[in-house]
Amino acid sequence: MDLFHPGFLMSLPRLIRFYLCALACLWGTALFAAEGDELYRGEVVVASRDDAAERTRAFTRGLEDVLLKLSGRADTLRNPAIRRQIQNTQPLVEGWTYRTRTVDGAEQIYLDITYFQPEIQRLLDSAGIPLWPANRPQTLVWLVRRDELGEPELADAALEPAVYQHLQEEAARRALPLRLPLLDLQDRLSLNAEQVWTMDAQALRAASQRYAGDSILALSLFRTLTGETYAKATYLFGERVLELENFEESETEFLDAAIALAAEELAGIFAVRMAPLVNDDGGGAFAIFEVQGVRGMADYAALLKYLNDLTVVNSVQVLQAEGDKLLLQVRNGGQLRQLMETLAFERRLVQQGEPLRTGQEIAVQYLWQGAP
Description:
- The protein has three domains: 37-126; 139-270, Maf protein (Alpha-Beta Complex); 276-368, Alpha-Beta Plaits.
- The chain has twelve helices and 15 strands.
- The chain has helices at 6-10, 14-27, 52-71, 80-86, 117-126, 161-173, 185-190, 193-197, 201-208, 251-270, 297-309, 336-346, and strands at residues 41-46, 93-103, 106-115, 139-147, 153-154, 178-179, 215-223, 229-237, 240-246, 286-292, 313-322, 325-332, 349-351, 356-358, 361-368.
């Protein structure tokens, strides 16, 4: 729901309406630009600007890329409803343009395609596929390499440029933000190559704290003198630990699988269904949030905007305001667990105690931390 939608504004007292409108003018349009616009764009290499059949095929490839980014899952493209729609992509295309770039000294033509956000969301919803919102955690990557003649060695992008370039490219395909450690003295004192090699989860978590890294991907590469590669990945998120080993696949296939492991785990946690759950009153699933720490109109406006901007939230209604405390009814478009995990990840609302259930109503207490 848009915080500055006329219907929402008219439901507020006159002074608050005036204040929010003034804030809208001060903040400008940049703040309200859809953060996930890039998720609805596809870029496809083409041979010609004039081949209509090739352009139609590019629309399909671009849509497949967009659906992979929005869902985080490769099996999305095997869904029957998705396969049917991919046969007719024209109604989903909002606009397209050709661009030319020089790649390795040669000119390359790209078709840049933008797809209608509401139609894509409707397609995912009709196929029963949850949407992974645009606000995604960075995944911190630790890499250690070793050959038959040497000891394990922490590797940065300078030591392993091809590996890191491939990781970035594959992560971009799934819109998974990656972060690389500095590997400075502090990093090397808190984490050594042997700890990454053995996938010491406790040491990895401790060393990643300086980066506020909840999402951690550790990779180890062992290369033989004959050119074979043995590789292992461990993915950490919260208390979750997932592992992946590679004996027969190529190194690039292993790197692709490691990125998929992280992306699909995060999508499974944070993705939400666009269609709301329905209570007996037909109004959608909701929870009662008691939020403390709302000190003044700036906090009030920032809190409401923050909640309304979350993809998982359908609407927010203020039930009561007293001192620095607000009582809110929050209607969400997915499971309450998903909403609470999103809030826990972003840390702007800090949960105070366990949720309380009274009949069908769930109440949660939060402390507002203000703007980031």
